[in-house]
Amino acid sequence: MIQRLGVSLLTGILVTFGLLWLMQFLIASGEEALTQDNLFEFVDFVRVDRPETLETKEAKPKKPPEPDQPPPDQPPPDIDSVDPNSIVNIAPVSLNADVSIAGIGGFDNVDGEYLPIVKVAPVYPRRAQSRGLSGHCILSFTVTRAGTVADPQVVECTSSLFERASINAALKFKYKPRVVNGEPIDSPGVLHKITYEMAE
Length: 200
Fold this sequence. Notes:
The chain is an alpha+beta fold. Among the domains are: 1-28; 108-196, TonB (TolA/TonB C-terminal domain, 2-Layer Sandwich). 24% of the residues lie in helices and 20% in strands. The protein contains three helices and seven strands; from the N terminus they run αβαββαββββ. It has helices at 2-35, 126-131, 163-170; strands spanning 115-118, 135-143, 149-157, 174-176, 178-180, 183-185, 187-196. The strands form three sheets. The chain has a three-stranded antiparallel sheet with strand order 3-2-7, covered by helices on one side. It has a two-stranded antiparallel ribbon with strand order 1-4. Strands 5-6 form a two-stranded antiparallel ribbon. Strand 2 (135-143) and strand 3 form a beta hairpin.
């Protein structure tokens, strides 16, 4: 145990003195490097500013070439001789056209059922498009005496994504209203099916 302690102590002393000697050597050699003349020379580059002039040239269109021959003169217009004193007789035209447009939407008030006039295609919902969904909606609404659609309600729909688009489209429909005894009336309970299909 004492031998190991002695060897460790001797080794520590030797290492310490070795490091001190190495540091002294480095310091001495560093002082010599500082006292020596500079071995390197630095070259400074000086750039002389020259006056720069910017020349701008305007592009001018080329002059068209001179024609070889001048264009020929146009002949004078040929005007028929018209006698200003002549009289032109135009017979009157009979315009006795019997046009009668009655009723709402330009239809006669003849008894009959409602008829579709304008049907607007619905806007395909984006969420249904992104999911690749197709299907249909059955709506129930009232065709008013003015030919418009009122109170649209969903009776059956394959997906809730189609309900709002179907109702918005139905509200834009136009009909010839139902006529009874020459008077247009409301027609409740009209069913309409709207089909949604993805284009292939």
